[in-house]
Automatic annotation (TrEMBL):
SUPFAM superfamilies: Ribokinase-like. It holds the Pfam family Phos_pyr_kin. It comes from Amylolactobacillus amylotrophicus DSM 20534. InterPro entries: HMP/HMP-P_kinase_dom, PM/HMP-P_kinase-1, Ribokinase-like. Pathway: Cofactor biosynthesis; thiamine diphosphate biosynthesis; 4-amino-2-methyl-5-diphosphomethylpyrimidine from 5-amino-1-(5-phospho-D-ribosyl)imidazole: step 3/3; Cofactor biosynthesis; thiamine diphosphate biosynthesis; 4-amino-2-methyl-5-diphosphomethylpyrimidine from 5-amino-1-(5-phospho-D-ribosyl)imidazole: step 2/3. Residues 15-262 form the Pyridoxamine kinase/Phosphomethylpyrimidine kinase domain. It catalyses: 4-amino-2-methyl-5-(phosphooxymethyl)pyrimidine + ATP = 4-amino-2-methyl-5-(diphosphooxymethyl)pyrimidine + ADP; 4-amino-5-hydroxymethyl-2-methylpyrimidine + ATP = 4-amino-2-methyl-5-(phosphooxymethyl)pyrimidine + ADP + H(+). This is Hydroxymethylpyrimidine/phosphomethylpyrimidine kinase.
Length: 272
């Protein structure tokens, strides 16, 4: 039958080295047996050492990609990645409202895992206003959650309160990812607040490695893939957490400096 294969789309930028952004999302969709499509928002020229140049796609081109996919395919989940400026965020929000692409996973991509701001303040405010209310699941890293909640998130109780605040901004389900930037830590704990008000923690051992490019992209992409297949949010996130842990714990040697995670390891874990 036409469109019988489960389909999901990533709305993101392209990293030319394949480690993050749209390439990581498509690796993750493939590994979870979901046919992946892509709406390109930006492109960067870079490698494992650095990024040398970047281009943002014109809003009309982004909108046309939405139109063409909606006219032909049955997309059951979408996820967002790098949305570089207010114009990009506006056109993505407009089209996510216009077309039914199923569950929406919002990976904020506003602050790096090391705490560096990626968006100008105006774009950040647009993100809060336009995209958070569309989220079936939002997946901020620790620093993004601090920014979005204006809280220190210094202990589990504050993290749980922060998730409740994010839910009040419109996100149905909130996953606040734990810090993983200290060599002294032994575990990484993420907190999930579900739409029904129940919460749960997910904990995995901390892995010391510089092969972590695409970690957040992959986590949100696997969540989207599982939602597209009909899994509930808690189960989708449980699968995504285990997939990403295996992908980090089993290094792949690509590039000279900061490398990608190993999607094959995540895939093989569930197919043994």
């Amino acid at each position: 039958m036409t469109n019988e294969q489960v389909q999901a789309v990533t709305i993101a930028g392209n990293d030319s080295d394949g480690s993050a952004g749209m390439p990581a999302d498509l690796h993750a969709f493939f590994a979870r047996h979901v046919y992946g499509m892509g709406i390109l928002t930006a492109a960067v020229a870079g490698n494992s050492h650095s990024i040398a140049a970047a281009e943002v796609m014109p809003p009309d081109f982004i909108a046309k990609q939405f139109e063409m996919l909606a006219a032909d395919f049955h997309i059951k989940a979408a996820k967002t990645g790098m949305l570089s400026d207010s114009r990009t965020i506006e056109v993505v929000a407009d089209n996510l409202n216009k077309y039914d692409f199923g569950a929406i996973v919002i990976d904020p991509v506003i602050i790096t895992k090391h705490g560096a701001m990626l968006l100008e303040e105006a774009a950040y405010e647009t993100f809060k206003k336009r995209l958070i209310p569309l989220a079936t699941v939002i997946t901020p890293n620790f620093y993004e959650a601090q920014k979005l909640t204006e809280m220190e998130l210094a202990n589990p109780q504050e993290i749980e309160a922060g998730a409740t605040l994010l839910q009040s901004l419109g996100a149905k389900n909130v996953l606040i990812k734990g810090r993983h930037d200290s060599r002294s830590q032994e575990k990484v704990s993420d907190y999930l607040l579900l739409a029904d008000g129940s919460g749960m923690w997910f904990t995995e051992p901390y892995v010391e490695t510089d092969r972590v490019n695409g970690t957040g992209d992959t986590l949100s992409a696997v969540i989207a893939a599982e939602l597209a297949k009909g899994n509930d949010v808690a189960n989708a996130i449980s699968i995504a957490k285990k997939f990403v842990h295996e992908a980090i714990a089993n290094e792949i040697n690509v590039g000279h400096q900061f490398g990608p995670i190993n999607h094959w390891a995540g895939m093989n874990y569930f197919e043994q």
